[in-house]
Design a protein that fits this description.
By secondary structure, the chain is α/β, with parallel strands linked by helices. Helices cover 23% and strands 31% of the residues. Strands 1, 2, 6, 7, 8, 9, 10 and 11 form an eight-stranded mixed β-sheet that branches. The longest helix has 17 residues.
Length: 216
C-alpha cells in the first residue's frame, strides 16, 4: 500500500555550475517518483545547462536547422528548445493531486509565474494564443523571452520553464524555437536589463510564492 502523498512546503534549490542534461533528467524522474510515493517533498530546482538543444514530444526533424550542440530527446511536451549558460531553467516538481488536479491551470500558473517575475524588472511578458511561452512586444515585432515544457506522471509534474536572462542569443539559430516561425528570441540583457542570475532568482522566488504559495 502506497504512503499518502506529502503535502508540504516545496523545497527551493539552486544548483551551481552547468549541469549535464542527462543528469538533470535522471534526477527529476527519481524525485518525481518519490513525490508520487509520498517519500519526498515537492521541489523547485533552478539550474543552468551547457549549450544543448532538447526535442519535445512534438519536435519536427526539419526544425533542427544546425545541430551545432548536443541534441537530446526528452519526454516533455513541446518541440525544440535551447538551453545554455545565461538561461535560468526552473524544473518544477509539484504534486498536482494535492493541488487540485488541474493540468491546464498548472500551465497557466507557470506562465503567470514568469510574467510576474519579469514585471519585477519592468518587462511586460505576455501570453499569445496558439504560441507557447512568454512574449515581449518590441515595436512591430514580438520576441520570446521564456519557454515552457512540462510532463506529468502519476499527477507529479516535472520539466518546467526557461527564462532568458543573458544567454548567447545566436545559439538559438540552430533551431526553430518551439516550432514557431517568424518570431525572434530575446532576453533581459537584450532588452537592456542588466540583471544578474542571482537577481533573476530573487524575482523568480518572489513571483513563485505569489502564484503557488510558500517555499522552503
Amino acid at each position: 500500500m502506497l504512503s499518502q502523498p506529502l503535502i508540504a512546503t516545496p523545497q527551493w534549490t539552486i544548483r551551481p555550475g552547468l549541469l549535464p542534461y542527462p543528469e538533470a533528467v535522471a534526477f527529476m524522474e527519481a524525485r518525481a517518483a518519490a513525490i508520487a510515493e509520498g517519500t519526498a517533498s515537492e521541489l523547485v530546482w533552478l539550474v543552468e545547462h551547457p549549450p544543448i538543444y532538447t526535442a519535445g514530444t512534438s519536435a519536427r526533424a526539419e526544425d533542427l536547422l544546425d545541430a551545432r550542440f548536443p541534441v537530446f530527446k526528452t519526454g516533455r511536451g513541446g518541440q525544440f528548445t535551447y538551453h545554455g549558460p545565461g538561461q535560468r531553467v526552473g524544473y518544477v516538481m509539484l504534486n498536482l493531486r494535492s493541488r487540485g488536479g488541474d493540468v491546464r491551470r498548472y500551465v497557466h500558473d507557470l506562465e503567470e509565474w514568469l510574467i510576474r517575475a519579469l514585471a519585477r524588472f519592468d518587462v511586460k511578458g505576455e501570453r499569445r494564443e496558439g504560441r507557447v511561452g512568454i512574449w515581449v512586444v518590441r515595436g512591430s515585432r514580438e520576441d520570446k523571452i521564456a519557454a515552457l515544457g512540462v510532463r506529468v506522471r502519476r499527477w507529479v509534474t516535472f520539466h518546467g520553464v526557461a527564462l532568458n536572462v543573458a544567454p548567447d542569443l545566436s545559439h538559438f539559430g540552430g533551431i526553430v524555437p518551439c516550432g514557431i516561425h517568424g518570431f525572434g528570441v530575446t532576453s533581459l540583457a537584450d532588452l537592456g536589463v542588466k540583471a544578474t542570475m542571482a537577481e533573476a532568482d530573487v524575482a523568480l522566488k518572489a513571483a513563485f510564492q505569489e502564484v503557488f504559495g510558500p517555499v522552503a
